[in-house]
Amino acid sequence: MIRQLARSDRISTAPIGGFCPYWMRHEDSIFVADTAGELADLVPVDRRTIDPVSVLSLLQFNYMLGGRTLVSGVHKMLPRATLTGEGEELRVPPIPHATRRAPHSSIAPHLLELLEAELVEAARDHSRVHVLLSGGMDSRIIAGVLQRARSRIQATIDLVTWGDPQSRDVAYAERVAAILGWEHVLIEYTPELAWANVSAAATWGGAECTGIHLHGLEGLRELAEKDDLVIAGTLGDSMGRAVYSGRRITRVIRWPMTNTGSLLPYAQFPRLAREARCARAHAWQMTDAEPRWVRAELDMQENYLGRMLCHAMDYARQFCSLHQAFSSDALVEFVWSLSPGVRCDGVYFEVLRMLDPRLAAIPWARTGLAPDGQGRVDASLRVTYHDWRNWPRTEFLDDLERLYFSPQLASLGLFHQPALERLWRRFTHERRPSIRLSEDILKICSIEIARERYALQAPFAPPTRRDRVTERGARLAIGAAAPAFVALRTAKRVAKRIW
């Protein structure tokens, strides 16, 4: 739904985990909408251009940085910000970090108390709550906290899992549901659902992430009603354990901007990289000098979580309400007051023991081992709950090839065609299929789906003769330097093994 702001209107976003709408300036007025596509339709067709800075960041990071979208001139509101009716986006400083240390036995009760207060408040005005339950720790804790607060919640609660019935996630989620005594709903994750996600991520989601991250959310559409609440644990790893994409925050690296796969024109890359760095710096630019890991956490919360994982979960907001657990100001203030060294698995295990020791005896899908240390890995269960490693090369290959080599996409001049062809050959000839390479292909295809749906135009003027000479020279120089780079990288690996 599109809304035109009056001059006196104000829209604010939460510091962590809340929904951030889209906005644009059109004919001297500010318009706000739930999706970028709704606003793109307001732009005259001859002025709907692709934002190449967003393409650069999508190719490198799997998400778009700051408030940029695929459509030039359409912006996504940033967290902890206020948008005025005059088109000014005002930000407040982030919730501060500290390095207080405490034993797990004292952290866990306070974390449990804060999470319980948050979930009770979130469920207050809803008659039915659907908890997204996997085989991980975060959703298990959410379910246990809701059971602990059952007398204070009037809503009916059920647990929803998606995936292969023979996977760890589904098997362990069923055990959690049996202990709590709640209904467990399984949404099977099929190739048909996965392909529908590819289209939805490109059109509804503006190609800001690939369909891999929409999971089984479409299956909720038939289950949830408009007044229902879905509770997700997307922020759990980052808040409770200080882990982002499998890395502890103290080991997260803020990578420099690169021309991934040499896919973009080198003549344009320096300018695009500068603008991408500025977009990324929105996450911490209003703070004083902090330790490297603090800036990394602000970056990961605003970009990796906000622009990819939480954005994908927002798909559910089309048909019901959504709450991201571990997001209340009080909980974030408490967690971020702690040293990252004490935000670890031990706190979660202590919380589980406080909730119900039986929950700690169910294996963790990530490792196959129970938090309480009992039992052995069940080799009969699949490690992953989906088959995204193979589906793009089997079920989707023809459709992906048609999109990937679309003449209309090639005519944009956005990508270097020989580099695209090299990437496709790697994808189709990979001996051990990888999700990473599948996602690289899906990014390009998602851009093409969005381009077609919103009639997006070329972001660059046709290259001049000088541009072509510069491009050829840059690629020849990089090709000449490649053997030296490989030798240096090999030497570093050998040295690392020796030391």
Description:
Helix 3 packs across helix 4 (137-148) and helix 6 crosses helix 17 (435-454). The chain is α/β, with parallel strands linked by helices and 499 residues long. The chain contains 18 helices and 14 strands. It has a five-stranded parallel beta sheet with strand order 10-9-8-11-14, with helices on one face. A hairpin with a 2-residue loop joins strand 12 and strand 13 (247-248). The protein has helices spanning 36-40, 52-61, 104-122, 137-148, 168-180, 191-203, 236-241, 269-281, 292-313, 329-336, 345-355, 357-360, 391-394, 397-404, 407-411, 417-429, 435-454, 465-498, and strands spanning 3-5, 10-12, 22-26, 29-33, 75-76, 81-84, 89-91, 128-132, 156-162, 183-187, 229-232, 243-244, 247-248, 321-324. It has three domains: 3-50 and 67-91, no CATH class; 104-360, 3-Layer(aba) Sandwich (Rossmann fold); 468-499.
Identify the CATH homologous superfamily of the largest domain. HUPs
Indicate the CATH topology of the largest domain.
Rossmann fold
Strand order of the largest sheet: 10-9-8-11-14
Average of pLDDT: 92
First CA to last CA: what distance?
Answer: 59 Å
**Helix segment tally:** 18
Indicate how many domains the architecture comprises: 3
Strand content: 5-15%
CATH class of the largest domain: Alpha Beta
Low-confidence stretches: 484-488, 494-499
Tell me the number of strands: 14
Q: What's the CATH architecture name of the largest domain?
A: 3-Layer(aba) Sandwich
Radius of gyration from the CA trace? 23 Å
Structural class: alpha/beta
Q: What gross morphology would you assign?
A: globular
Q: What summary fits the major beta sheet?
A: 5 strands, parallel
Helix content: 40-55%
